[in-house]
Structures are given as structure tokens and as C-alpha cells.
Please model this.
Amino acid sequence: MNTHVAAIDQGTTSSRVMVFDASLRVVSVAQREHRQICPEPGWVEHDPAEILGNVRELAAQALREAGIEASQLAAVGIANQRETAVLWERASGRALGNAIVWQDCRTESLVRDIVQRTGPQGWRERTGLPPANYFSACKLQWLLRRHAGAMQAAARGELLFGTIDAWLAWNLTGGPDGGQHVCDVTNASRTNLFDIHRLRWDEEICEALGVPMACLPRVVSTSQPIGCIRDGALAGAQLAALVGDQQAALIGQACFAPGQAKVTYGTGSFLLMHTGERAAPSASGLLTTVAYRLGEQAPCYALEGSIAVTGSLVRWLRDNLGLIATAAEIEELARSVPDNGDVYFVPAFSGLFAPHWRPDARGVLVGLTHFAHRGHLARAALEATAFQVQEIVAAMQRDSGMKLREIKVDGGMSANSLLMQFQADLLDTSVIRPVCGETTALGAACAAGLAVGVWSDTDELASHWQAQRRWEPAMSGAERERLLGRWQQAVQRALDWSQPAS
Ligand SMILES: Nc1ncnc2c1ncn2[C@@H]1O[C@H](COP(=O)(O)OP(=O)(O)OP(=O)(O)O)[C@@H](O)[C@H]1O
Ligand SMILES: [Mg+2]
Model:
């Protein structure tokens, strides 16, 4: 029987392919980073052909290391970095320029246009999202305007738009030769073109933004058979799940009941709380998003707080400042000082996302005196992540009227104990890390396996979830309030800095 499941986790900084067995144990992992292309301040691009090439090679490597062939896979699932936009030619498969990455700020003037026309909330009631650079709609608008004749070609169906799930699915299922042009409901819900209640592209929004609907992918469930893979090492296996990486982590953390929440600390950090079959609106700057849709079942929704820069700040300290040699070293450096020495780092490199939504913000380091040294910088950088997550949890508690009793964590930065303890202290909540830290790939594997009957339901998946470590809050209320107050002062100083070209 085919009981192995493969997951492609196409992230912002790297791609992974992982093979799991029927008990959800990891059998093999292959990973590779891709280039972060930053041609101008505030711009971030990826080469979609490089990403596709990496995924192909990693798939072959993961199968080889697992000692299995594609014919032994019950299903393959794809989790992907969300919002990143690709436009390509149907006939050749060639992308028009690079993919515009979710962190990219170049569309600020397009966003201002939308705000002027619709008000600051934009089409939030329908899409769950405010107008912002972050989402795909303006990135697609920019691509269509940038390339001569693109608008007309897109209207004729000769150009295809996709988030990264769609780009990979189309290529893996045949590309120009009959590839499936599909994306799933979770990815569609991050474009700002998708009606999350009716689960379809919104004609009126597409019209308002000048996006021809002929270039949009067909929207499928998160977990459903999509088609046979006809490309490379995975050829012959069934593609059976597409899911945005943060929603995949929610599944991988077995958050299947309303009120359950997780934070993934990767390039950015993302807190998602399951809200059941209800799309809960937010009054506090959170996003309403589709959590997943399993086959023909009703969709489940989530409230989300997205933070653009967390792990990427650690990477920036490593690569751009040379402050540390490896990401893990930041913990030791931060422990070399007893506290932050009143230094705060607001890493608004892509503006500020939730709950502020301020594209005009840029990074600031405040509180410097002769006393400060590299240890304080490291500590301030780590604490910035915890402060930003705290702001989101506070917003979520306001919106939902519920107090989070515990929060599940994962992603690269959850390896950092200093950060996890500080997070528990700031939230005044237990922080729990699971045995399997690769929750994104795990979630994609779970969704794919569910679609083909490897697992019968979410209860069975939840029974495999196990905690590995917990952190309990140990900070006084007065100290917490003092730190949060200082952070808010620092945030004020990051605002109103960028001057977009008009
Ligand atoms: N011990 C650590 N302390 C602090 N930060 C860390 C540590 N280890 C890794 N990181 C940071 O975590 C990030 C990597 O996390 P992870 O592997 O979850 O990301 P990823 O899945 O590759 O991200 P993405 O999916 O966004 O590409 C990097 O930005 C790195 O700087
Ligand atoms: Mg990731």
C-alpha cells in the first residue's frame, strides 16, 4: 500500500521537500535556499524558474534519501510562501520578470489609489483584508502595467497569474502541455481579489483594479485530488493539496477547533487563530482569512496577525552587519547582557503590518547611549519579535473577547529559548513547542493524505500531535507594562519615514 506522503514547503528563504510515513514521522528532508533579489530599496523579488528548479532537484533528493519512488507515494501536498505574485506565458511557461515577493513595498502608490477610492478599509468585508502592499492584487497590477501588451495578453488568456502554489502546480502537472492552472482557497484569500464568503474571485474588485479574470487560476479546496504530477522525480504521484504556509502550519499544529492558535516564527511571524466556520471580522487590524477547506466540507476561517520582519532581522544582523556568524549565535550574544539596556529595535523594513498597517514606517533603533553594545542590539532584535507578537495577541483578544490560555509555536526562531521565555513573559501565557517543528511541511502532508484517505479525519491527525517543551510566564505585571509602554514609544518613532515616489 502507498502510505508515504511527500510535502513541498516552498518558503520565502528556502524550499524543502519532505517525505512522511503514515504515522507522520519524518522519513527524509531536502532543503535549499534561493536568492533574495533586492534591486531597489523596498523591493524584494524571487526568480520563479530558480524556485521551480530547486523544487525539482529537492524532490529527487528527498525520494532518494527516503529510499522510495514516486509510485510509493499516496499523495503530494504543496505549502507555499503566500501573496508572492508570478505572471507567466501559457504557451512557453516563461515568467514575465521575477516574482514580486510578499515583503515588497513598490506598490505603495497603487495602494494609496485604492484607499482614495474606497476608504481605508478597502474591500475588507468581502476579502477580509485592508488595502496593503502585502497582498497580491497590487503586485499583479504592477506586473500587468510594467510589461507592454501584458494587459491585453492576460485578457486573451495567454498570460497566467498565480501565487507560488499555482506556479508550482501548473508546472508539475504538465506546464504548457495541459498543466492545471489552480490555486487553493487559502492562497486565493491572500490576494485581495477573492470573496472569502462566497469562495470566488470578486468581479467588481477585478474590474476596479483592471485585472482580467481570464488570467486568474481556478480555485480549489485545500485538500482534494488535483491531478497527476507529470514532471521529474514525482511523476506519477497524485497532487492532492495546496495550502498557504501559515495555514499549513495551523494544520500541522493540529489547531482544528475554534480558539486554538499557533505562531510560526520564520522570515516573518504569523499568528493564526481558528474561528470555526465563521469568518470573524476584525476591528483591531487583524486579517480574516480562510484557514482551510477540506474537500467539499464547509470552509474553516482564521483571524491572523502578520508580522513582516522577525527571523529576517536575525538574518540581516548576520548577513548585512556580520554581528553573528549563525542565526543560533544570537541567543548567546543576547544572554551576554541581563536586559535590553533600554534599547529597542523596530524592524519596520517593509513598513509595519498588523495591527498597525503603516507602509510609511521604516526600521529604527532607539535608546542608544555609550552604554549600549552588541549584546543589547542582539537582545533588542529578539525582543522585537516578542513585542510584535504580543501586539497581535492583544488585538486578537480584543476582537474575539477570549483570553488565549496557551499558544503553540514553531518555525526557526522557536529554537531560541531566550525568545520563547520572553514571549511567555510578555503574553502571560504558556508557550508550547511540538515534537515535529516542521509544521508547514507536516500540514501540507496532512492535507494531501486526508484527500486520498491515508488519514480518515482531523481527529486522527490531532492524535499524532505531541508537545516537546513548554515555557511558563514568570514576569511581574508591572515589568510587563513598563516594557510594553517603552515598545509603543519606539514604534511611534518608526512611523512617517518613507517618501514614496508619487
Ligand atoms: N536559534 C535561532 N534564533 C533566532 N532566530 C533563528 C534561529 N534559528 C533560525 N532563526 C531564524 O529563523 C528563520 C528561519 O526560520 P524557518 O526555517 O522557519 O524559516 P523558513 O521556513 O525558511 O522561512 P520561510 O518559510 O519564511 O522561508 C531565519 O530568518 C533565521 O534567521
Ligand atoms: Mg517556512
Summary: The two ends are 60 Å apart (CA to CA). The mean pLDDT is 94. The chain is about 35% helix and 20% strand.
